[in-house]
Amino acid sequence: MADYRAFLAANADSIAAFEARRQAAFEEERAKWQQSGEFDRITELSASDAPVATDIDLPDDADLVAAPFGGSVWKLLVAPGDEVKAGDTIAIIEAMKMECAVQSPGAGTIAAIYVQERQALQAGAPILALKAEG
Predict the structure, then answer these.
(1) Domain 52-132 class?
(2) β-bridge mates for residue 99, sequence order
(3) For a Cys-Cys bond, which of 1, 14, 50, 94 suits 120, CB 3.0-4.6 Å?
């Protein structure tokens, strides 16, 4: 521990200079995010009034596929009547500038879709109904 404290003391000026540069870069990046409206978009996506379909018409013998996390529906890759296999990408959700694929949990036919592209979602919100094969 004594060696560590001696190292910190010997390098105090360069450590402080690095921390100041790091903080300035962080503040510059936050200012860019603020200017671009990123914080407003995130507030909008995480608002408690984001639409959540709670009263949906789930077809008989269909399973509900729900959003694994909150975000925005960037792209729907299926339509009612489409056949999918387990693992097929059925939608892409965008959250925090990352695109994340939502995969079909099983094989079957898309029976209903409950979302639209660019719609904000909360975790657990219904995305679609999947009618299993057989």
Answers:
(1) mainly beta
(2) 94
(3) 50
How far from chain centre, in Å, is Cα 79? Answer: 21
Half-sphere exposure of 62 (CA within 13 A, CB side): 21
pLDDT for residue 57: 87
Contacts of 130 (CB under 8 A, 6+ apart): 62, 63, 64, 65, 84, 104, 105, 106, 108, 109, 110, 111
Tokens of 91: 């939608």
Residues of the chain falling short of pLDDT 70: 41-54, 134
Comparing CA positions, the residue from 127, 90, 124, 91 lying closest to residue 107 is 90
On whether the CB atoms of residues 61 and 131 are closer than 8 A, the answer is yes
> Which structure tokens are listed for 12?
């105090």
Single out the residue of 65, 75, 129, 130 nearest to residue 101, CA to CA: 75
